[in-house]
Amino acid sequence: MRLKSYIKRLSYCSSRVVFYIMIFTRFPAVALNYYRYITGGKKIRVSHSPLLVNFYITNKCNFNCRMCLRKEQGYADSAGMRKDMDLGKFSELLAKFNKCIYVQFAGLGEPLLNKDIFKMMSLARERRKGIILYTNAAFLDQQAAVRICDLGVHRVNISLYGANPEEFFANTGSDRQDYYSVLDNISRLVRIKKSRSPRLMVSILYICSKRNIDDCLKVIDIGNLLGVDEIHFNNFNHQPFDAEAGKDWYLFEDDMEVVKTVARMRSYYSYAQVFAPAVLKISAPKKACPSYYKYINIDYEGNVAGCCKFSYPVKENGNIYSDKDIFNTDHFLKMRSIFTGKHCELPRNCKLCQEIYK
Asked: Which site from 21, 48, 133, 357 is most exposed, i.e. has the minimal number of CB atoms within 10 Å?
């Protein structure tokens, strides 16, 4: 089983190499932008543009997850969150990021609820962009699965909000029976992709905390039964952010049961590749967050953000229509200076984020 996992991973890596070669040879500007990224180092002001653009294409969601940024105060007042992005607006915004490699559909709503989602994917494909989709899989029916495979989507990341129906209900507020529908939809996508798009990577994402860490091995078993390629365990982030309220949830190194369980997850016998959660240090490491060097998030109004875990696009961070150098706005410069400055204290939420442990 482990050998099959390695072979599958090697196949995926080789397909990515082929994709990069095709993109870089046909689009020199994209290749030059990537070269500037890998040679630029972790500077405050960067000379490259984002490698991945994450489009917030809808505000609608069928779940009411208790850990979602939608609960953050001020979210409802964000102008760019009030309207679905249509195909025309997507095309206009995508043209402003012609040097990016990947287009991602995620954000604070369920992307499959946007009626133009597959037209957007088709347009991104025409412009030779890799496509990544985040979804809760509730609307991942037969037709959606076929279209995803036929459009050549690179990766589908599926949020699994429970190891059982009870946890699913507690996290999402959705009917317990919907849990089994989600599992059926994931299994169907895996079956369809084997014949129509073998190189498509299907991953499940599970939020891990002290309260459910004992269920993580069960999640690995579920992922293997479904036939997914990867299983990612993301650290819990309390929303609205409150370090004190979330202290009983976070995975810290001083809890030996947490340390032992995470070690078991890393060595657990699995066909799917397992990415264990980070064990947080009492004194957080001072590392530059990759989000502010590789990614940008954008909404319908052109507002942006660098981090998708603790923030969402707002005009104060920058706007593609009013800021000439969108990847070097005051927001990005400030955050990079915090990550790279020797005497700058990390924001509390960053100290509890797994991104700085990568």
From this structure: 21
Q: Residue 11 — pLDDT band, cuts 50, 70, 90? A: low
Whole-number Å distance between alpha carbons of 353 and 335 = 15
Closest C-alpha to 352, from 258, 267, 270, 252:
252
Q: pLDDT at residue 59 above 60?
A: yes
Q: What is the pLDDT of residues 199-239, one digit of tens each?
A: 999 999 999 999 899 999 999 999 999 999 999 999 987 66
3-state secondary structure the chain: CHHHHHHHHHHHHHHHHHHHHHHHHHCHHHHHHHHHHHHHCCCCCCCCCCCEEEEECCCCCCCCCCCCHHHCCCHHHCHHHCCCCCHHHHHHHHHCCCCCCEEEEECCCCHHHCCCHHHHHHHHHHCCCEEEEEECCCCCCHHHHHHHHHCCCCEEEEECCCCCHHHHHHHHCCCCHHHHHHHHHHHHHHHHHHHHCCCCEEEEEEEECCCCHHHHHHHHHHHHHHCCCEEEEEECCCCCCCCCCCCCCCCECCCHHHHHHHHHHHHCCCCCEEECCCCECCCCCCCCCCHHHHEEEECCCCEEECCCCCCCCEEEEEECCCCCCHHHCHHHHHHHHHHHCCCCCCCHHHHCCHHHHC
Distance, in Å, from the CA atom of 212 to the CA atom of 342, rounded to the nearest integer, reads: 36
Task: With beta carbons less than 8 A apart as the criterion, state whether 50 and 327 touch.
Answer: yes
CB 189 within 8 A of CB 148: yes
Higher pLDDT, 124 or 41: 124
User: How many angstroms separate the CA atoms of 353 and 347, rounded?
Assistant: 10
